[in-house]
Amino acid sequence: MNSDPYSPPLPAPCVIDRGLLVQKEDMKRVLNSLSRVRYRYTLEDLHYSEGEGWILAVFADPAQATIVVNQSLYLNVQSFDYLKLTQIGQQSVLTLVQDNRQLELTPLAAPTPPPTPPPFDAAALEAVLTQVLSAHWDVQLDDDFF
């Protein structure tokens, strides 16, 4: 830290492909850019869990947990001390670290999105509504007649 009140402030860090992020907002920005990942959880250098999943939420709240369940990841940056960025070949690897615990995330290419539903057919909807209203009016007329 710069303790001299007369010197200019230090510039913000610049991290490119490799390095450590300790600011929670920086960690959130990087993690929010991910969608589908391969994860690997280790504790004291022992492998505990791995799989693939979707990052559904990234937040900073000291009262909530980081949760990985049912191929869904809810990441609380408050659960970790820093985010380590590394590269293996062309592949980025992001590792959330807290003491002797690590959650390693490797981005995966997102699968093709599900097919989009067919376009809304207003004429078909209007025809169905006309039939429903016509049937309703017929019932009312029958009730009025008897």
Walk me through what this model shows:
The protein is elongated. The mean pLDDT is 85. It has 146 residues and is an alpha+beta fold. It has a domain at 19-107. Helices cover 23% and strands 38% of the residues.
Number of continuous helical runs: 2
CA radius of gyration: 27 Å
Helix percentage range: 10-25%
% residues in beta strands: 35-45%
Mean pLDDT: 85
Shape: elongated
Structural class category: alpha+beta
H/E element sequence: EHEEEEEEEH
- Biggest pleated-sheet summary: 8 strands, mixed
| Poorly predicted runs of 5 or more residues | none
Keywords:
about 150 residues, about 25% helix, alpha+beta, elongated, single chain, eight-stranded mixed β-sheet
Summarize the helices and strands and which ones pair or pack.
Elements: E1 19-21, H1 24-32, E2 36-43, E3 46-59, E4 67-69, E5 72-76, E6 82-88, E7 91-98, E8 101-107, H2 122-145
Parallel strand pairs: 3-5
Antiparallel strand pairs: 1-6, 2-3, 2-8, 4-5, 6-7, 7-8
Offer a quick outline of the entry:
This protein is of the alpha+beta class and 146 residues long. It has helices at residues 24-32, 122-145, and strands at residues 19-21, 36-43, 46-59, 67-69, 72-76, 82-88, 91-98, 101-107.
